[in-house]
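Working notes for the structural subgroup meeting. M.R. asked for a predicted model of this chain before we commit to crystallization trials. I am recording the input and output together here so anyone reviewing the notebook later can reproduce the run.

Input as submitted:
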Amino acid sequence: MTITMNTTDTTDTTNATPASGEQATPLPHPPGARSRQPLVAGVTHAAAWVAGLTVAAGATPELGDSAAEITSTYVDDAGRAVAQSVLVHGLAAGALAVLGVALLRRAAGGRDRATRFAGWAGLTSAVLAVMQLVLELVAIGRADVGDPGLAGGLFELVQRIDGVKMFALAALALGVGVAARRVVPLRRWESLTGYALAATIVGSGLGYLLLNTAFARLALLSLPLLLVWVVALGHALSRRS
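Returned structure, recorded in token form:
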């Protein structure tokens, strides 16, 4: 999650009249391009998830699988499993980082604690996703049907980290909800979507943290809400950048 410009506190150098004989120096980062970065990040996050789920449909282990089943799945479809991990734990993590930084920039301009809290929650989510990426790549690369314990154990660790990440995403949604209208201009339906996301993703987070398949099924609700809401957040940050 990248950087948005706070135009209220900076001098407009693009309209300054150069002294005689001098030429105006163009800005290295056009404000318009930079202001679109949160929206691009939000769309990228959703696209990465959709692509990852599509690429590896039926080719990745499921919560509740045995160590032998997990290892066998990784061995049989290593390429697709790697592709999914890079997309949903790598590219999507980068998008979350862009949004987290954008929120922190906005908080610095407005001295808003809720926005700052949301920004750090977004960055925490991104860091946890990168941890998942690393561990999953190790699990896939070291998968051995003759010794399924390593891949199985790493898979379970990745799921538990996923649960913690979901709590961080709930904190992100709640923080933005508190800051809405004051700092992050979400529409009413976007704020309500964020609160629904926070409620459902806490439940699914418990499922993944505790490896409980019943609670984990709430991800069928929380994931679509997450993808829609993150795009809305990116759009809101771009509107005010």
